[in-house]
Amino acid sequence: FYRLFEAEKCLAAIDEFLVVDLQMRLLVLLVLLPFVGSQKVRMRSTLVCKNGERIEGRCVCNVDYVGRHCEKKKMCDTFRRYSNGTCLGCLEGYTGEYCEEIVCVNGEVDKTGLTCVCKTPYSGLFCTDLDTKDVYRFYNNRAYMLGPLGALCIIPMCGLFYGCERMARKRQVKRVATMLGDQNLTVTKDAVKSLLAEDV
């Protein structure tokens, strides 16, 4: 009998706690509700539409723009559009229903969604460009991290680079000499070399 009495007492205490807890939650909700509403109004009033107008708390974008703030330009390949404004096709490097999403081939889209953050040694708008100096800098840094072993790796690369440059120069001289020979002009290779070496 005593245990039953204790159990009933415990249940009554839990019920009382739940009622008080519910009352506290309602009180907190009633106190905070005006502030939450004013915060939403304040957020709507500070909404910035980059390429459009703010109407009734939201952005209405100009013809060639989309996005919450009208920040993304439609990159359609033609001026023709479907009736809902979507593109018939996208320019190279863009995708999406409105061609507003940039495609980063060797990188990731930044947090704005407008540009790419390229992986090393890639660069360019879509992370597709490989500049020679960036490639060499990338591999030089890799070789530097390897220490003495890296130096052993870089020596053949330097030799390969200079060998390729020399072969390319020889091919260029040969092409120019052949081209001039086709026009019935007799020119020595030394003359072509000196001609190509001059800064114009």
Automatic annotation (TrEMBL):
<feature type="transmembrane region" description="Helical">
    <location>
        <begin position="143"/>
        <end position="162"/>
    </location>
</feature>
<protein>
    <recommendedName>
        <fullName>EGF-like domain-containing protein</fullName>
    </recommendedName>
</protein>
<keyword id="KW-1133">Transmembrane helix</keyword>
<dbReference type="InterPro" id="IPR002049">
    <property type="entry name" value="LE_dom"/>
</dbReference>
<keyword id="KW-0812">Transmembrane</keyword>
<dbReference type="InterPro" id="IPR000742">
    <property type="entry name" value="EGF"/>
</dbReference>
<dbReference type="Pfam" id="PF00053">
    <property type="entry name" value="EGF_laminin"/>
</dbReference>
<feature type="domain" description="EGF-like">
    <location>
        <begin position="116"/>
        <end position="127"/>
    </location>
</feature>
<keyword id="KW-0472">Membrane</keyword>
